[in-house]
């Protein structure tokens, strides 16, 4: 993937909030358009993030990164999805204060936590917990309807863990992806023992990762996002099954 023909906007952009979507009890999606030029005058790859600068929330400006949970095939907007972090300054400020019409300052897009068709393998395996699902929703949005075509994975598997069904971020999107041939979505719940049998139970384990890919590690690229323990576990399982380091990618949300 190269940068040829990619539209970029240099420096800090003023992004107007066009929509606020309540996803769960502690998570919201903010849909943005460029407040100066309208629409989205920049391109991005699914999985990339924007870096936001918040002036006036604390004494000094605060900078935080948020992955775009949208994909470019959703049109001329972009969106990011924020989960409240306990005692977190910005995640709570965004969820409590930001409304339609407000303007946020951000720069980007940034990051290589993306699917790279010329390097990556045909089966993309994504492992996440909590808000770590956001890059994978973007990637699935981008590739689900192109699956098996040139430039897209042939198969996608998402294994994601939450505490309970109430914590499921972007649940409708996950349900829709699961219905597409070649896309598999597995949700495991660590504190919801009465959930129906289509949910797996417990935190993500090595056995769950092996089961999710049906013990078929040939032609896989692994991407993992969430707490360090999940990224370490995913990497260890993949390596033990012969997946080369170049096919194991991580993104940490804890900067
Ligand atoms: C590349 C990148 C992409 C990101 N994308 C997203 C995204 O799409 N959605 C999203 O909700 N967040 C995302 N994050 C995390 C986000 O940038 C903030 O770190 C998060 O919102 C917490 O900020 P805060 O100001 O509320 O918390 P702070 O005031 O910075 O932290 C408060 C406390 O929470 C702990 N903490 C900080 N971040 C986390 C975390 N992520 N999980 C658990 N504990 C934490 C800190 O150690 C501290 O104890 C991303 C981070 C990076 C680096």
Task: Briefly say what this structure is.
With 255 residues, this protein is α/β, with parallel strands linked by helices. It is built from 5 helices and 12 strands. The chain is globular and about 50 Å long.
CATH superfamily of the largest domain: Nucleotide-binding domain of ferredoxin-NADP reductase (FNR) module
Radius of gyration: 18 Å
CATH-scheme architecture of the largest domain: 3-Layer(aba) Sandwich
Taken together, the total number of domains comes to 2
CATH fold title of the largest domain:
Rossmann fold
Basic shape: globular
Lateral strand order in the biggest sheet: 4-3-6-1-2-5
State the end-to-end CA separation: 26 Å
Compute the number of helices. Answer: 5
Question: Which strand-content bin applies to the residues?
Answer: 25-35%
Ligands (ions, cofactors included)? flavin-adenine dinucleotide
Unreliable spans are none
> Would you tell me the overall average pLDDT?
95
**Top CATH class of the largest domain:** Alpha Beta
- Count the E strands: 12
H/E element sequence: EEEEEHEEHEHEEHEHE
């Amino acid at each position: 993937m190269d940068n040829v023909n990619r539209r970029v906007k240099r420096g800090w952009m003023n992004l107007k909030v066009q929509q606020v979507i309540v996803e769960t009890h502690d998570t919201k999606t903010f849909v943005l358009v460029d407040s100066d030029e309208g629409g989205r005058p920049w391109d991005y790859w699914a999985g990339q993030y924007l870096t936001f600068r918040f002036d006036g929330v604390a004494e000094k400006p605060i900078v935080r990164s948020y992955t775009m949970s949208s994909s470019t095939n959703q049109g001329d907007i972009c969106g990011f999805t924020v989960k409240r972090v306990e005692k977190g300054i910005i995640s709570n400020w965004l969820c409590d204060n930001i409304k339609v019409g407000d303007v946020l300052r951000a720069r980007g897009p940034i990051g290589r936590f993306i699917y790279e068709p010329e390097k990556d393998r045909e089966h993309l395996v994504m492992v996440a917990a909590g808000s770590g699902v956001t890059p994978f929703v973007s990637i699935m949005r981008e590739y689900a309807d192109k699956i098996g075509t040139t430039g897209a994975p042939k198969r996608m598997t998402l294994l994601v863990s939450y505490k309970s069904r109430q914590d499921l971020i972007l649940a409708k999107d996950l349900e829709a992806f699961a219905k597409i041939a070649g896309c598999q979505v597995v949700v495991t719940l660590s504190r919801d023992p009465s959930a129906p049998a289509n949910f797996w139970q417990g935190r993500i384990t090595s056995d769950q990762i092996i089961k999710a890919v049906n013990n078929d590690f040939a032609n896989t690229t692994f991407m993992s996002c969430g707490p360090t323990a999940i990224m370490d576990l995913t990497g260890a399982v993949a390596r033990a099954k012969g997946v080369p380091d170049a096919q194991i990618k991580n993104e940490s949300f804890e900067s």
